[in-house]
Design a protein that fits this description.
single chain; mainly beta; 10-stranded antiparallel β-sheet; 3 helices; binds fe (ii) ion
Length: about 400
């Protein structure tokens, strides 16, 4: 994010004496990526940012995974995972349940109404899509308000906490790497180019420091270790409040981007999924399919052709409208489809004829494509619709073969 911001009070030069009103020194912290060789920000604390008074184990939720074997496409109904009454007491960090994951990225889902603890993810950046609800995320850089359709991009090791305003539904993409706009959208110095579907004006960063005060503040840290998925957790207690920053500047900070601000790229014939890309991380991309005018060649077929992405597993999260290509499959709002590498996928046959002559698609979906195979987390396994794999043929185990009716074509 080579998009410089300055918030609060910072000294005229970096790395010089910067005194408080009482005459003491502020404590300068550089938060930077790739060993002083990439984006960074300088934060000015009232307290010592490394002063901890305790460190204990934080037991992470179940992060074990099961391989997609025997290989098949999957349909996961995320809205079946959480009971609303229980969700009010869950929080957006500890309540996350693992849907899919691999060695590069994990996708979790949570429905939660309680404030989260202070938290930071030291394994990688997080990109959290807000399916529903509003609230505020407080961070060491300041506060970000959020609403449905927002992506919150939170850099690795950013201490923050979630304060939902009522129950929220969050789809959390946790990387082991950084998450950023695609390089091809940016100039060599990092400015968004004219062909990009969004630009700096569409990103919202914190505008004021929180100037928090307090002592003995516990922060939950997710970090690399020998647990499932290569992750473990630690509870660190800080002598002074981590949000005691009076000002910061730089190019590394959390921000929001709302999917409504993504300007779709359309054409006379079908445009390939990279035109829908919004972010990228190491070994995965994030795309979104937004309401748009569809292909306008007189003989165009608006739904996608069958495709075999030989290098990718594709995960689609259906969050709004009608998803045209999946008609007749049982896919609905709150569904996730997993179409793995090594398997050609495309529309349910009835959706092709039904799409001819369409002018617009009123669909909204978030897609994650991974370059290494995804495995099912405990929530993915718990939410599976077992009949989905057979919906193109209309028959298969338990579906159209005289076996038990396990699939509802709703
Ligand atoms: Fe696809």
């Amino acid at each position: 994010m080579a998009h410089y911001q300055q918030v609060g009070t910072v000294p005229a030069k970096r790395h010089v004496q910067f005194r408080t009103d009482e005459g003491g020194l502020h404590y300068e912290e550089l938060m930077g990526e790739e060993g002083f060789s990439s984006d960074s920000s300088l934060l000015y604390h009232r307290g010592v940012p490394s002063a901890i008074v305790d460190s204990r184990v934080w037991e992470l939720p179940d992060l074990t995974t099961t391989a997609n074997h025997p290989l098949k496409p999957r349909h996961l109904r995320l809205h079946s995972l959480f009971d609303e009454a229980a969700a009010e007491k869950a929080d957006p960090v500890e309540g996350r349940r693992l849907v899919l994951g691999n060695g590069d990225v994990r996708i979790s889902y949570v429905v939660a109404g309680a404030d989260s603890p202070y938290y930071r993810n030291a394994t990688g950046d997080e990109c959290v899509y807000v399916e529903a609800g509003t609230g505020v995320v407080e961070t060491v850089f300041g506060a970000l308000s959020f609403r449905a359709g927002d992506y919150l991009v939170i850099p690795r090791a950013t201490t923050h906490r979630w304060l939902p305003d009522g129950v929220v539904r969050l789809y959390a993409v946790e990387a082991n790497s950084h998450i950023a706009p695609p390089k091809r959208y940016l100039s060599r110095y990092g400015q968004f180019l004219e062909h990009a579907p969004y630009c700096e004006r569409d990103l919202t960063a914190p505008t004021d420091p929180l100037l928090a005060e307090g002592a003995d503040v516990e922060v939950l840290v997710k970090h690399r270790g020998a647990g499932p998925g290569g992750l473990v957790g630690t509870r660190m207690t800080y002598a002074t409040h981590p949000f005691d920053v009076v000002g910061w500047d730089g190019c590394l900070y959390p921000y929001t981007f709302n999917v409504e601000d993504f300007e779709p790229i359309t054409g006379r014939i079908h445009q390939p999924p990279p035109v829908h890309q919004v972010f990228e991380g190491h070994n995965f991309v994030i795309c979104n399919f937004v309401p748009r005018k569809v292909d306008y060649h007189p003989l165009s077929v608006p739904v996608p052709y069958y495709h075999s992405n030989v290098d990718s597993d594709e995960v689609m999260f259906y969050v709004g409208g009608d998803y045209e290509a999946r008609k007749g499959s049982g896919i609905n709002i709150g569904s996730v489809s997993l179409h793995p590498g090594g398997y050609a996928h495309g529309p349910q046959p009835s959706a092709i004829e039904a799409s001819l002559g369409a002018d617009r698609f009123e669909e909204l979906a978030v897609m994650v494509d991974t370059f290494r195979p995804l495995e099912l987390g405990e929530a993915g396994a718990a939410a599976e619709d077992p009949g989905y794999a057979w919906t193109w043929a209309g028959r298969g185990p338990g579906h159209g073969d005289g076996g038990p009716a396990v699939y509802s074509n709703s």
